[in-house]
Amino acid sequence: MELTIQNISKQFKELVAVNQFTAELSCGVYGLLGPNGAGKTTLLRMLADILRPTSGIIRLNGQDIRTMEERYRDVLGYLPQQFGYYRQFTGRQFLMYIAALKGLEKRAAATKVEEVLQLVGLGYEADSKIKSYSGGMRQRLGIAQALLNDPKVLILDEPTAGLDPTERIRFRNILSEMSANRIILLSTHIVSDIEYVAKDVLLMKQGYLLKQDRLVSLLKELKESVWKVTVDENQLPVLKQRYKIVNILRRDSGVEVRILSPDKPLLTAQPVTAGLEDLYLHYFNEEIIR
Amino acid sequence: MRQLLRYELLKIVSRKSVFIVGLLLAAIYTVVIAFHAEYYQDGSKEYRSYAREITAEDIQRVDERYKRSNWHQLPIQEKSIMEDISGIPNMLHKYEEQLLDIEIRLMLSQPDSYEYKKTKLKEKLLLEQGPPTAQLYYNMPWGELIYMVDQFGVAFMGAMLLIGLSPIYSAEYATRMDSLLLSSRHGRSRLIHAKCLAAILYTLLCVLVFQLINMGVTALLFGNLDGATTPLDSMRRYGATRPFAEYPYSFTVIEYYFIQLGVQTIGCAAFAIAVTFISSLSRSSLVTMLLAGGVLGIPYLLLDVRNIRYPIIEWMVTFGYSQFIRVTHLFNSFRTVNFFGEPILYPIAALAALLAVTAVFVLGTTLLFRRRQAC
Fold first, then answer.
1. Residue A239 and residue A129 share a domain
2. What are the strands, taking DSSP E only, across B250-368?
3. Residue from B151, B137, B157, B208 nearest B328 by CA
4. Which tens digits make up the pLDDT trace of B165-182?
5. Does A289 touch chain B (CB under 8 A)?
6. Has residue A215 been placed in a domain?
7. Given A52, A73, A86, which is nearest B183 (Cβ)?
8. Do B187 and A101 make contact, defined as CB atoms within 8 angstroms?
9. How much of chain A, in percent, has pLDDT values that exceed 90?
10. A98 vs B: CB within 8 A
11. Does A78 lie in the same domain as A61?
12. Are strands A200-205 and A28-33 parallel, antiparallel or unpaired?
């Protein structure tokens, strides 16, 4: 199974949301990282066949997905960033409806719906109206619908938004179990989700693919670039001005600061192992959601 | 497909707004009936003694009684019998007048001309119909029942279809559900057909509910539904003129009722498809409702309610959805459409035009949604 994204661009009037994006994805989990406005959602929408690229081509096993049409969508599972559900439906009704849209026969659909409801931990609330669901429950229902047709290509846009830590761990485990024989592309701001499950990371900025590599390889680039140092409160403003600060932790002994810098920032600074958050800050220079 | 259809229908009927508007319309219908209460009186017993050929003596007796008594103070049934009896000479006269007019027109027009063919067609229909029988028929329950379909039907069906179907696509766009629909296997194919079929099934449900309530209330208030097999041209409501006095066909009341039911159902289903099409263009259910409401209501309000008569308005009304929901104006007079020199009866031409427009809307909706991109 191979999904080839070849030079795709998407332009909305003056704005180029995705620019000459090229990547090759095989079975496994891919994390798509980038700041807001990087073009992640637009890219995922093109992969979900709901937005046509202005130029470029997407192929599944060598076949253009636009000519595959239903055959492509048949192997596709997609969780959009936002959607409204049908408040008057029960969770089970909603999933049965999506199953019908995905072409599952009634009996097979009923079995599969029960299975995914258990998988996302919604079995006990399956027959309650969606309007009574919490945000996390709705998100789990969204994940469940994406899994209904056993998709070979699973595209998830911010899947863990609104989930509590237990639910996020459960979700990550589901993804890991599923990733053996399918392509999973996961876009999120929550870097720890990617850190635990992603095989490869795709870094995206201003519509471009900055980098695609194994997480380990990407982190190697930051060797000797992440430092930890304990300073006095009055030294902090100077450090903030000079360096990229990843984290600040106030302790009894002083302020513990995690700094991103190619050079040793202070004599007392100790090098530490880089993480995905450091990588994110290195490339995007933005706040991290842990 | 059946599963998809089921859930599409469930989406429509499970909306609270549909339920609320349905209740509101039921309340309005009750008020209308209450205001018309005096017309819901059984007159079958009074009419029974006149279920025979009306003679010149009967007519003379009624005329004399008319002069002697205070007309307005008579019971509605008696007043109605007297109106019917005194109207018989006029009915016979009108029929003969129409045949005479036909004879003159045939003499004045070229045998191959459209005018000639049209007049010949009218002659054929009138001869098939035969002269009106000089007999009284009691069919007031049907007169009232068909009147309510004609008058209240547009408001009821229009409101129910607008409230139920305006969100059919608009709500999917507004809630961003379109992303999910379009990325699914059947989202660009069977779903569109399921939505169209669900719109039609919902329409059938509304027609059925309205007809059953209307028929039930009429039968209950009159105590019977007598007069089903009487000629349509004799049908009227108490105190009203006969709406089909000059119609050129030969239906009985019950035959016309089923024709009306069929045409109204087709008209409503066509309007449902039009609402669906407009909904596929707009993200806002309200905009859809206003646009589709305008398509249905503006011609109806201008001509039927405000009686503003301009050729363009009359043309709009001729092929307007409200006429198909009312039905009466399709059949109450002899009208034809010139189709390459051949006269086509207006109900047939109008229905053909309606079906053609509906087919275009179905195709348009299919193409629009199939090519849609979810932004």
1. no
2. 336-339, 342-345
3. B151
4. 999 999 888 888 888 899
5. no
6. yes
7. A73
8. yes
9. 19
10. yes
11. yes
12. parallel
Provide the residue range defining the domain that includes A94: 3-219
pLDDT of residue A159: 83
The domain boundary, picked from A192, A219, A246, lies at A219
ipTM greater than 0.90: no
Q: Which residue has the tokens 């139920």?
A: B164
Are B7 and A83 an interchain contact pair (Cβ–Cβ within 8 Å)?
Answer: no
Strand partners, A5: A23, A58
The reply to whether residue A100 touches residue B10, judged by beta carbons under 8 angstroms, is no
Cα A80 vs. chain centroid, distance in angstroms?
A: 11
Contact between chains at A49 and B181 (C-beta distance less than 8 A): no
The amino acid sitting at A168 is: R
**Mutation target vs A (from B180, B181, B191, B371; most A CBs, 10 A cutoff):** B180
Contact A129, A87 (CB under 8 A): yes
Sign of CA dihedral B318, B324, B326, B332: positive
Q: What is the pLDDT of residue B336?
A: 87
Q: What is the CATH number of the domain that holds A73?
A: 3.40.50.300
Q: Please give the residue of chain A at the shortest CA–CA distance from B194.
A: A101
Q: Exposed, middle or buried by CB within 10 Å (0-12, 13-18, 19+), for B286?
A: exposed
In a domain, residue A288? The reply is: no
Judge if A171 and A87 occupy the same domain. yes
Regarding whether A168 and A259 lie in a shared domain, the answer is no
- Report CA-CA distances (Å) from A263 to A238, A266, A274, B312: 16, 9, 14, 82
> Which of A72-86, A93-107, B114-128 reaches the highest mean pLDDT?
A93-107
CA-based nearest distance B16→chain A, Å: 9
Q: How many beta-carbon contacts under 8 Å exist across A and B?
A: 89
User: How far is A209 from B135, CA to CA, in rounded Å?
Assistant: 89
- Beta-carbon contacts of B180 under 8 Å, excluding residues fewer than 6 positions away, are A78, A80, A83, A98, A101, A145, B187
Q: Within a domain: residue A244? A: yes
Sheet holding A254-260, edge to edge: A244-251, A254-260, A226-231, A270-271
Do A214 and A234 belong together in one domain?
Answer: no
Beta-carbon neighbour count of residue A220 at 10 Å? 11
- A68 and A195: one domain? yes
Total domains in chain A come to 2
Looking at the partner chain, which of A82, A84, A100 has a beta carbon nearest the beta carbon of B3?
A100
A48 and A149: one domain? yes
CB A21 within 8 A of CB A202: no
pTM of the model: 0.82
Q: What pairing do the DSSP bridges indicate for beta strands B342-345 and A270-271?
A: unpaired
Q: Cα-flanking dihedrals φ and ψ of residue A102, to 5°?
A: -85, 0
Which structure tokens are listed for B301? 């309000």
Question: Where is the domain boundary, A219, A241, A264?
Answer: A219
pLDDT above 50 for B56: yes
Distances (CA, A) of B139 to B13, B142, B148, B238, B253: 36, 6, 14, 10, 8
What is the reported pLDDT for A286? 55
A9 interfaces chain B, CB cutoff of 8 Å: no
Nearest CA distance, B158 vs chain A (angstrom): 24
Q: Which of residues 164-223 of B touch A (CB under 8 A)?
A: 171, 174-189, 191
Task: Report the helix count and the strand count for chain A, using DSSP H and E.
Answer: 11, 14
For B104-150, the pLDDT digits (tens) are 888 888 888 888 888 888 888 888 888 877 788 888 889 888 888 88
- Does an H or E element contain B271, and which? helix B253-279
